[in-house]
Amino acid sequence: MNGAHPEQLDLVRRLLRLGRAMYAVLDEPMGAALGLNLKELLVLSAISSGDDSPGRIAARQHLPAPTVTRLVARLVELGLVERGGDPSDLRRSPLRLTDAGLALDARRREEAARLLAGYLAHVADDTVHDAIVALTRLEAELGAERQPQEMQRA
Fold first, then answer.
1. CA-based nearest residue to 96, from 31, 48, 130
2. Would the pLDDT of 39 be above 70?
3. Which terminus of the chain is more solvent-facing, meaning fewer CB atoms within 10 Å of its CB: N or C?
4. What mean pLDDT do residues 20-24 have?
5. Is 122 a residue whose pLDDT tops 50?
6. Model-level pTM?
7. Interval 60-64 mean pLDDT
8. 42 by DSSP, 3-state: which?
9. Which residues fall within 8 angstroms of residue 29, CB to CB, at 6 or more apart?
10. 152, burial (CB in 10 Å: exposed 0-12, middle 13-18, buried 19+)
11. Is residue 131 over pLDDT 80?
12. How far apart are the first and last CA of the chain?
C-alpha cells in the first residue's frame, strides 16, 4: 500500500480544520445559552432524531460507548431524557426525550441556526448545498457509521 494520495490528505486536513472551526463557533455559545456542553447536546439531538440506545448513538457520533453512557446518565439526571421499557425485549430500555428535553432540543436547533447563520452568512446557498451532497456521498462511500477500528479490519 502506497499510503494516502495528496488529495486525500488535503481532504482530511480541510475536514479537520472545518470541524474545529464549527466546534469553536458552537461550543461556548451553545453551552452558555443552554447549560449543556456540545457532546451532551449531540446526544440530545441524536435521541431527538430517533437513536434510542447508547450503542446506536456511540456508533453514529463516533464516541466511545462509556462516554455516551455517562452523557445519557447526566441527561436522565437532568430530566431531559427518560429510559422506557420494551415489552418485546426486557433487556432493552429505549431512550426518549421528556417534555423538558423536547423543549431544550427546540432551543438547541434555534440557537444553532442563529449561530451558524452568522458564521455562514457570506457562503452562497449553492456552495452549502454542494457541500452537503458531496459530504453525504463521502459518508456513504466510507461507511461513516463504522468505527475506525472496524475500518482498519475491513
1. 48
2. yes
3. N
4. 93
5. yes
6. 0.78
7. 89
8. helix
9. 111, 115
10. exposed
11. yes
12. 14
Torsions phi, psi for 83 (to 5 deg): -95, 125
Smallest CA-to-CA distance from 146 within 62, 43, 46, 55 is with: 62
**83: nearest Cα among 94, 72, 67, 70:** 94
Three cell numbers at 104? 431544550
Average pLDDT over residues 11-17: 94
d(Cα 11, Cα 81) in Å, to the nearest integer?
37
3-class secondary-structure state, position 97: strand
- Identity of the residue numbered 145: E
Residue 27 in contact with residue 34, Cβ under 8 Å?
no
Q: Which ranges of the chain would DSSP assign to H, the alpha helix?
A: 6-34, 38-48, 54-61, 65-77, 99-119, 125-142, 148-153
Give the chain's length.
154
Letter for the amino acid at 133? V
Query: What's the sign of the alpha-carbon dihedral 114, 118, 120, 123?
Result: positive
The confidence score (pLDDT) of residue 72 equals 95
Contact 134, 48 (CB under 8 A): no
Supply φ then ψ for residue 56, to 5 degrees. Answer: -65, -40
**pLDDT of amino acid 62:** 87
